Request: fold
Amino acid sequence: MIDKLEYTNKHELIYLDQTLLPLKQKYQKTKSYKDVAEAIQKLRIRGAPLIGIAAAYGVVMGVHHYKTENRKNFEIHFYKVTETLRNSRPTAKNLFYALDRMTKVFEENIEKEFYEIEDLLLREADAVFDEDAELCKRIGVNGSELLGEKMTVLTHCNTGELATGGIGTALGIIYTAKNQGKEIFVYADETRPMLQGSRLTAFELYENGIEFDIITDSMAAMLMKEKLIDCVIVGADRIATNGDVVNKVGSYSLAVNASFHKIPFYAAAPGSTIDFDISTGEEIPIEERDPEEITRVNGEKITSDKYNVMNPAFDLVPNELITAIITEYKIHYPPYNFGSLKHMFQSYIQTLRNEQEDTE
Reply:
């Protein structure tokens, strides 16, 4: 397992700077929640589940390193911390899911001593981390049912250990299938403009002994035409209750091409990625990022700054293009109606938490 993030007893967060991979593995340390927000915004910490975990620990640091005896000031500071972290990135639901959990713990215990509140917040952040690791395992088991004894899978962006608290979502399925003795070959598209596929997914696949080729994003349709791809598996940053999926930009193109070539297109994500408050993906905010991510590579200018640039980080895959959505609970098939499953997912998480507490 790749050590991507750790909260220490010195109340500092140590994290692997993912912008430097795969050529350099460097760990950063911070005791500042503002640094955590910046690391999320700058993609040094990335992946929908992992940014939620990092934000949860950011809340703990923000509380621990703030010194006051005034309860009102303590409360005002808490909401300042959570608001800063909420503003780091707008699209991934897991970020807001984790911060909502931290806020609930804070509000339910606001009358307790400050150190007690801090301890409860740390326990909740640990639970967010541990639960995601377990959910990844269960997604892997469920999703591996969709892979035959010999399969070629196309992936997009990075959906593995670097993006989650555990083995990953889409990549976790591949790792699980390999451990079951299945022969899996992966085409990892580069995923412009930040190259999470060629940098991060390739790094993980190599470390885990999975055979793969890196391809450019524009090669996928040709490989499908030549019947070299058996299925596409992607992750998700937010899922609407009707099954619309918002994921890394380029996912829609893959879904359209997969549909045309009659290839299954799967999305894998934990229940924390589902936004039970929205009906369709049209309601999901799409993050527009810095034009320099396109005009520069590793800081080197590759085109003129005078040119206009569009740089949305995500796009919307409508539910009719999605063969199945794989969660920790089960494999979901159309028609999707996650709104009716909200209490089921909540109950499932509570059962998981009870199981983990019983083993402690």
Q: What stands out?
A: The chain is about 40% helix and 15% strand.
